[in-house]
Amino acid sequence: MENLIALLVAAPLLGAAVLLCGGRRLDPVGHWIGTVLASASFVIGAILFADMLGKDEEHRALAQHLFSWIPVEGFQADIAFQLDQLSMTFVLLITGVGSLIHVYSIGYMEHDERRRRFFGYLNLFLAAMLLLVLADNYLLLYVGWEGVGLASYLLIGFWQHKPSAATAAKKAFLVNRVGDMGLSIAIMLMFTTFGTFAFGPVLEATGETGEGKLTAIGLMLLLAACGKSAQVPLQSWLGDAMEGPTPVSALIHAATMVTAGVYLIVRSGEIFNAAPDAQLVTTVVGAVTLLFGAIVGCAKDDIKKALAGSTMSQIGYMILAAGLGPIGYVFAIMHLVTHGFFKAGLFLGAGSVMHGMNDEVDMRKYGGLRKHMPVTFVTFGLGYLAIIGFPGLSGFFSKDKIIEAAFAKGGTEGWILGGVALLGAAITAFYMTRVMLMTFFGEKRWQPDEHGHEPHPHESPKSMTIPMIVLAFGSVFAGGFFGIGDRFLHWLEPVTEHTHGHPPIGATTVTLSTMVVLVIGVGLAYLQYGRRPVPVVAPRGSLLTRAARRDLLQDDFNHVVLVRGGEHLTRSLVYVDHTLVDGVVNGTAASMGGLSGRLRKLQNGYARSYAVSMFGGAAILIAATLLMRAV
Amino acid sequence: MNPVNYLYLAALLFTIGASGVLIRRNAIVVFMCIELMLNACNLAFVAFSRMHGNLDGQIIAFFTMVVAAAEVVVGLAIIVSLFRSRHSASVDDASLMKL
Amino acid sequence: MSFPLLTATAALPAIGAIATAAVPAARRTAAKWLALLVSLATLALAVVVLVRFDPDGDRYQLTESHAWIKDFGVRYELGVDGIAVALIALTALLIPFVILAGWHDADPLETHSSRWRPTQGFFALILGVEAMVIISFEATDVFLFYIFFEAMLIPMYFLIGGFGDRAHAGSDEHAAAQRSYAAVKFLLYNLAGGLIMLAAVIGLYVVAGNFSLQEIAEARANGSLDMATNTERWLFLGFFFAFAVKAPLWPLHTWLPNAMGEATAPVAVLITAVVDKVGTFAMLRFCLQLFPEASKWATPAILVLALISIIYGALLAVGQRDIKRLVAYASISHFGFIIMGIFAMTSQGQSGATLYMVNHGISTAALMLVAGFLITRRGSRLIADYGGVQKVAPVLAGTFLIGSLATLSLPGLAPFVSEFLVLIGTFARYPVIGIIATFGIVLAALYTLVLYQRTMTGPVKPEVSAMPDLKVRELAVVAPLIALLIFLGVYPKPLTDIVNPAVKQTMSDVHKKDPKPEVEAAK
Q1: Span C378-400, mean pLDDT?
Q2: Is residue B92 part of a domain?
């Protein structure tokens, strides 16, 4: 069985290689190759899953050792995989949702002449993400980690002829690289501390070193997670990443990429458990991002950017849960999976809307679309209900547990984190209702564009709606399936451990207050966007709204401090290199030239001046000889 | 007579010769001054020979004379050919050997 | 007596150079093919060396030794260890690609008379450089090494000064002036380094009485040759200075951007991927073996300079407007990593540094040669003159992207393995330096992606709209290099197996042991 693990990665990797090297000959069949190989990976995953369910809890983990990767004295890095329940969860999510997105893209990218290449990149994305979750050591994980960065770079910048897309892609890669730096420093720290960076030995040996070292490692891992999962302060790439085709956004936000940070923290649980300071920072980062993303999501008029803010916020919940330690790990992953379903559904729905609206993304130019796109409306609506945590749907089960666990942290921290999580739930309800109302309800607000083409909203083809329907099913039922009877908890517990928290207020109280804030959020949104018509041109808005439209000024800060500062630094360094470093050398050459020019004047051609120097020299020699004698 | 006095004379002659070489511009005079310096040296050699009571100094004096004779031959030839080409015997006119 | 394999490997390209130079003016194409065949034959010989070399055998293998200048104890002594074998293989591997990539670079212009033979000269010089580089890697006699270390400058000087990049912004006279400035600068820098080294070589002879690397190193190791601390330090500095100019290390680097900018792309590859490697190789072989104590004494200063090289080179690369100068500054940054790895004095660092030399050779060759194809098409080296190439020449853009990704050390490609080893090896002994050096990887992403973005993406500029994609010859240059980058990134074991024993030896030369991991040390 364990020999199948490598195939999980190999199938999409093969697809990427074939599609990217195959040339134009493969254009007519490229998308099928890509979809079939992604689905093949899913099938293999399902077989392994069935096999895993057949075993008892203690013997479910599989391992496969391929070959020794970098054998150097005192340094052992292997190409080796491990498949335990945690990895299995991710494998199914990645390949499952990933395959659906492949199917969806067949329709969505139908008219793009570079569709083959698009599928090649998608396959590369899956392969990198699978490598990330299947690796049995941090260095191999790092390969997948950067591979995901590369794939996202290629996909975000897929429409390269648009400068904005190329810039967004570069920005995503660079911000991620900052995070990657954290991961590589963490690996180096592990190497000097434990002499290895394989999961097993490192996580078992956490007890043998000091808390300081572990805190450092934990914080560096957190930095890495911030980069990939778009957490404050490295969140700025996520909004711009919407420049990519919509299926890419779905893939990045639901199944791959942003979930990697959560995986990393949960996987490294033992390190964080032994480093409370690192955990505290993790929860703070999660809580801050949760609010940050939610506020940004409220202000955006671009449907994809509003959803991007929402992703940031939801991942904030997961990071917060992961920072809580054993009381939160399981719920972080559970929310991750349910979020995978409804966020993928929402993005695909948004893509479907754009597909029917001539790629318009401004929600102020939508309105009343429910009549034109019934399937999209229903699936999007179910995703909406799931994300705000409507009772009985997926988000309700997973988010509720996180809020409960946040309170259970105990002490003032617990109250603050729980409060923030509740507040986040209210804002989530607000901005998602806003999106829903602006897009599907109200009067039609679209107008002819500058060429006089009026959009004719229409339902998308089957290849697009079917994945949306499947995901909508997931959004509705996954949470209940996982949550009722603690199925998911029992499944993951052997890997991540779990302790039951004891929140200072009862679980029922938490659920009730969640419901209350939910109603408040929805109500406020309805008052603002449901009762009154939505203006086509955005009103000026309050100071906070304006700041939130600009991603709370984070980009402006980056631009002024990093971009401008960097430009000045490099420009002045170029100058320094030219004038100073090179100048010293050129100056030496010039002064040598000057000196010899002056010495040259002594050779004036007059025999008597040569004679004088001869006599002078002789006189000096004699004088020196006499002087030496005297001494 | 005290042989040291010959040395004084030799030093005097040498100085006169040296200043001549440095100051005068006529090639013939410069040449004669060089001869004067050589002869001053010869005088000193002979004086030393007398003072130390051996023949080394006198032998070297003969050598010097031979060298001086050879030098006269070459030197005069150069001066004559210079004079022929430039119609002047001034050493400053032959100042082309420079960078 | 067995067949002198090492001599043959160096002599073949030398003979080939003479033969190529002798091809008549009209038979230009024949000269090209001859050069290519000779370089391929050399590659075959290098492969034989690689196969005959036994990683677990003696330190120096395939040795040859003949008396040469008896009065001074100079011997013709050759021998290779794992590091040298790897670098000889790299050199022999890259030269055919350099020749193929420069196929048309030295075609005579129409204005030249029919007796003019630049093509023959160009390829002969390349083969000449190859011969000298290979023998420098093989020489185990300090004097013999010195001779070829210096003699290399002559063909390089003519390659830079005589066969410049035809894509020049200024007028022909301006281009010629820039080119001769670059060539003279290259020559003077390296000569200055070489002269100081000569003094040190003589000094070494005075102290040790012979030039044999093995004898001196052995005598140093068993204590029969005692050097005063100061003597050792001065001699070390003399050697190191020459190698640091060649490598190049900050602040002795400024010749490289000029030389790489003005030379044609294949010659630029020759400089940075092949010739400069002699400098870093010699640090490992001569500095560490002959002067272990002084090496340790100088380590902190050298590490700081290497660190400055890494960050400074990367920052300057960001600020460049000229594609080739950008690659040159990137190389300076990478050489910083190599030197850092050598002087970190850990197994991982030194293995990493050796791998880095090989991988950097391949990755820079890939990036620079594709950049060369690009520049030839458009006739400009300025980044601003490009835009949207991806749309018109996707294969060219794709290979350029892979070259860029290799330059920024993306995992899965060969440079990642070496860069990570260097970083981890440095971090194990000097955590702060290791952490600062990691900033280099962020900057590397910045300069390569900015380059890619500005040249390849965005709207198609009218000047590039008719740009043809890669031709078969060009693809034949790039594809094997990329395949090799991927192969060595996924499976570097063949290379590490050769390098590891040599590194172990070097570590014992300097009497250094790897720092123990904290957990293990506590037990």
Answers
A1: 86
A2: no
